[in-house]
Amino acid sequence: MNMIMWPPRPFSENRGIGRYRLLDTKLWTYIHLEPPVVRTIDVEDARDFMFAFAEQNCSRFVNNQLLKGGSQYVGPFQMSRLAFIQPNFISPSRDEQYFYFRDRCWHITQHEVKEVGYESITHQIWDEQRKNTDARYLGHPLIIFREKDGRYDYELSPEGRKCHYLQFLINTSNFTWRKRPEEIEESEIFENNLHLLSKMCAIGYMLMECKDANVTRAVIGMDGKQSEVGDSNGRSGKSLVGELMRQVVDTVYISGKRTDIFNDSFIWNDIDERTRLVFIDDVMLNFNFEFLFPNLTGDWTVNKKGGARITYPFAKSPKVYIPTNHAIRGTGSSYTDRQWLIAFSDFYNDKHKPMDDFGVLFFSEWDFTQWNLTWNMLANCIQLYLKFGVVQAPGERLQQRKLRQEIGETIISWADEYFSSEEHCRRTPRKEIYDNFCNYDPQQRKYITSTAFKDKIKKTTANGRAGCSTRHKYDAKSGLPLKKFFNTSGMLYKEMQLKDKLADMSDEEQFALLATNGMLVKRPLIIGDDFVLVGFKEAEWERLK
């Protein structure tokens, strides 16, 4: 080999080294294509590759000349003239998805998971897409869901019972775990099943590389247990869904607690065309979800530090996962059509963690068996999404939590106390009621106008006191859950700490407790021939006239 045979451009082209243009911009990066893998490299990597090749394959004369005048042959100018390479990346499909492992890949469709060798595929992949691990498809799903008359039931395989993460999803979908088996009604079982299916379909959706213009939603993980606004049930497992995604797809992590999240022009700096998910963890109260609307439904513009600006078209932009302890504000179809809500029970909490059930830390302490079961579960999630599509969690728990947040804890506490008094169970001028509220908490006059107060009271009376848990056994005449009959603002209720105890009590136990002391009963209580009214709700009392 002589110097005439050493032009960098043809040499590099023949060995998969070249430049890759970033979308339709003037920006580019160096890549090394070694089918089927495409790696991003820097200019020093390209030079080192050429020097190493020359050392192994070229004469001593050539190597001496390179050492003496390397910049002449592989200097910045020469390297910037390398040819552009366009890898044969597969166009994501709404009907299929690939998983890439060390020696083989899985081709996943709704009805089949097929293991194939890399020699069987013709497309290229980014190096980050291929996991440096092995995996073996078990030949069948870990869990099978069946639907009948709008209700879902499922069957677990023996392997499904051994999969830690699947069992974790089952536990976080169990909103009746405090009840004895004989107390759990069939409708509650189906509701739990729907919560589980919703989570698994949402995971499948986030795993799909294809961006479907018909599904432009952020997945939002919320606590399903009702609690006071601002209170966090804590450790319910919402963030573990995002952490799982970080393990299996190219994910950009952003702390939702950042106060500058909406003001930082470089907030999306780490996003590139390989990014499949943006994980905004633990967002704060009053998170401006509307801020994400353009990113969810259209192109995603990224301001890069250094001055570059790249717009990723919708088809190449990432999806979004947001776990939060607070309801996402906003109403109307523009909000609901952009949200996929999944709810988490308080099965896991500050005192009970997944470690207590499974004996290992998720992800970092899993062995091959657990990881293999998890990859099988993820393929299962994709198949469920391809079959059922968007499955929203039962919305009553989440809507009640959102309503409670919109009304505010101060108004809820005041209303419980105010309307429990018989003297207030009459038609009262709005101003008088508003003044009473402001006397209850003088600071509120600064923040809540008379008109806003009226709107919040309407929400309170129309929906019952916000945040009450929904039970499935009702008083025959009232149609209300038993908790509605308790005077939650009374001293006896607080002394007995019933706020934390009622959820563990059966209906019969709650009835018996109410009968022990009239101070536990919410007032006014009006019983008619075919109706029961508990507390003061203006609309209901108007009908009595």
How helix-rich are the residues, as a percent range? Answer: 25-40%
**Largest sheet data:** 5 strands, parallel
Amino- and carboxy-terminal Cα gap: 104 Å
Question: What is the name of the CATH architecture of the largest domain?
Answer: 3-Layer(aba) Sandwich
List the helices and strands and how they pair.
Blueprint: H1 8-14, E1 17-21, E2 28-34, E3 37-41, H2 43-57, H3 60-74, H4 76-79, E4 97-100, E5 104-108, E6 113-117, E7 125-126, E8 143-148, E9 151-156, H5 158-162, H6 164-172, H7 186-207, E10 218-223, H8 238-248, E11 251-255, E12 277-281, H9 293-297, E13 300-303, E14 309-312, E15 319-324, H10 333-336, E16 339-344, H11 354-358, H12 368-388, H13 395-407, H14 409-418, H15 430-440, H16 444-447, H17 450-463, H18 491-495, H19 498-501, H20 507-514, E17 525-527, E18 532-534, H21 538-544
Parallel strand pairs: 3-7, 10-15, 10-16, 11-12, 12-15
Antiparallel strand pairs: 1-2, 2-3, 4-5, 5-6, 8-9, 13-14, 17-18
Helix pairs in contact: 2-3, 7-12
Walk me through this protein's architecture.
- The protein has 545 residues and is of the alpha/beta class.
- Helix content is 37%, strand content 16%.
- The chain has 21 helices and 18 strands.
- Strands 11-12-15-10-16 form a five-stranded parallel sheet, with helices on both faces. Strands 1-2-3-7 form a four-stranded mixed sheet. Strands 4-5-6 form a three-stranded antiparallel sheet.
- Residues 1-7, 226-233 and 464-476 have low confidence and may be disordered.
